[in-house]
Amino acid sequence: MSRPVLRSIQVGSVRIDCPVVLAPMTGVTDMPFRTLVRRYGSGLNVTEMIASQAAIRETRQSIQKAAWHLSEEPVSMQLVGCTPYEMAEAAKLAEDRGAALIDIN
Question: Where are the alpha helices (DSSP H) in 1-51?
Answer without folding.
Answer: 31-39
